[in-house]
Recover the amino acids of this structure.
């Protein structure tokens, strides 16, 4: 068995994968019964071509399709699910001398294949239409209008999609194995990024080191890697890679993951450079300690909204300890001061999408959406935690001028030491992010396991 096979959860966790597929079949059968359906058809997606060009944009398969078929990047394929039958996978693998076509899975190379009827499509054609009432899930806008009519299908029924989204919230043993491997690969990249930073590399050098160590192409990462030196660390989704290293090396923030069969890791680390102030080093230590205390509180039944608000209270305490803000923590939270230093949420669900679905849907029966608390609109997860949920915990603290300037111009600014703020500004900020799975009595930290070295 090759090294790549040893790290392939579809091979090393074949029994768990079979159980995962069996649970999916059962869940879909319940959904079909409840929505009076005879079949559900999933489309894997279709690449989008750049305007007036002959090149396609980077492509990712539809997540509900990947929930069944662990072939990330498979396009123009279909999965037909019926009650009591093996799903039929119409797999598009054209005869093509321009590109390498997907390999047809067999039970020898992919044990999951025996759970499917597999039909080889050499051209992008429609599947055989199932009898009865059919729902079609996927990015319908990609398909020609006649496709939906020819399949006589209900396109993306809202209630059904919401129910299937809910079915992705708690992860199976197989999914956790994929997330664990994705975290391990990302950790290798983070350690290589830190080494390159310490050796004086530019943002591009750090990005290339990350990709090499995590064994990924840039088009394979689950989201665009964030590699920010100095003040760039305060741009939350910084999207560039400077070619030249800055003269002063205050800080590095790397927010980057990896993907295994579509399951994403999402890890962030901040490091101090040779030119960092002691205050910035203390900020990193404080945010990391804060994060570990929040992680220690994770368990089924914990309200994630309460955790988010606790993060803000603890951030207020840290800012006060460092002398940046003189107000008590509760007053900082109430007056929106901590929100200016950390405008994003504490974290989110993690899975086949980096910001996975159903983070704000606590009850599939009523469908009611629980919105974030006032003053915290960017919180993506508002649920009570359950066993099997995969989540991130990512507190941060940043010097973002456009958010802090309004504080300077009103009464709140009297309680802020602007000299310390200006001293921290060249460092950008701090974010520490781990990936965790909620267990029956706590949480499994996929990021800080002994294997990752983080």
């Amino acid at each position: 068995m090759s090294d790549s096979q040893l790290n392939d959860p579809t091979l090393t966790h074949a029994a768990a994968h079979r159980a995962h597929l069996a649970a999916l079949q059962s869940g879909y059968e319940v959904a079909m019964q409840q929505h009076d359906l005879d079949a559900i058809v999933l489309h894997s997606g279709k690449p989008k071509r750049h305007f007036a060009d002959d090149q396609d944009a980077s492509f990712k398969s539809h997540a509900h399709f990947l929930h069944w078929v662990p072939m990330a990047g498979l396009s123009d394929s279909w999965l037909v699910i019926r009650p009591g039958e093996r799903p039929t996978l119409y797999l598009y693998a054209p005869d093509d001398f321009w590109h390498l076509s997907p390999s047809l899975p067999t039970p020898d190379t992919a044990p999951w294949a025996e759970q499917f009827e597999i039909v080889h499509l050499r051209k992008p054609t429609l599947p055989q239409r199932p009898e009865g009432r059919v729902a079609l899930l996927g990015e319908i806008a990609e398909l020609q209008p006649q496709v939906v009519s020819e399949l006589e299908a209900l396109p993306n029924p809202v209630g059904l999609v919401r129910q299937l989204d809910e079915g992705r919230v708690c992860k199976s043993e197989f999914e956790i194995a994929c997330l664990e491997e994705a975290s391990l690969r990302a950790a290798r990249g983070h350690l290589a990024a830190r080494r390159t930073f310490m050796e004086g590399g530019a943002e591009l050098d750090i990005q290339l080191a990350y990709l090499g160590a995590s064994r990924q192409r840039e088009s394979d990462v689950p989201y665009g890697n964030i590699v920010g030196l100095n003040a760039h660390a305060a741009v939350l989704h910084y999207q560039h890679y400077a070619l030249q290293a800055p003269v002063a090396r205050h800080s590095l923030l790397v927010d980057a993951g990896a993907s295994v069969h579509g399951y994403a890791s999402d890890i962030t680390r901040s490091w101090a450079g040779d030119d960092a102030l002691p205050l910035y080093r203390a900020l990193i230590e404080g945010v990391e300690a804060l994060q570990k205390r929040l992680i220690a509180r994770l368990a089924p039944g914990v309200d994630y909204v309460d955790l988010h608000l606790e993060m803000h209270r603890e951030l207020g305490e840290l800012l006060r300890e460092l002398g940046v803000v003189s107000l008590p923590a509760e007053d900082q939270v109430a007056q929106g001061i901590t929100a200016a230093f950390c405008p994003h949420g504490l974290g989110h669900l993690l899975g086949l999408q980096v910001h996975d679905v159903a983070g704000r849907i606590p009850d599939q029966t009523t469908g009611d959406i629980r919105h974030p608390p006032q003053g915290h609109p960017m919180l993506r997860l508002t649920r009570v935690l359950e066993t099997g949920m995969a989540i991130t915990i990512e507190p941060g603290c940043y010097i973002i001028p456009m958010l802090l300037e309004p504080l300077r111009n009103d009464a709140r600014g009297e309680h802020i030491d602007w000299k310390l703020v200006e001293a921290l500004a060249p460092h950008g900020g701090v974010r520490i992010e781990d990936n965790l799975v909620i267990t029956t009595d706590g949480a499994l930290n996929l990021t800080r396991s002994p294997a990752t070295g983080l």
Notes: The domain at 173-445 is CATH 3.90.230.10 (Creatine Amidinohydrolase).
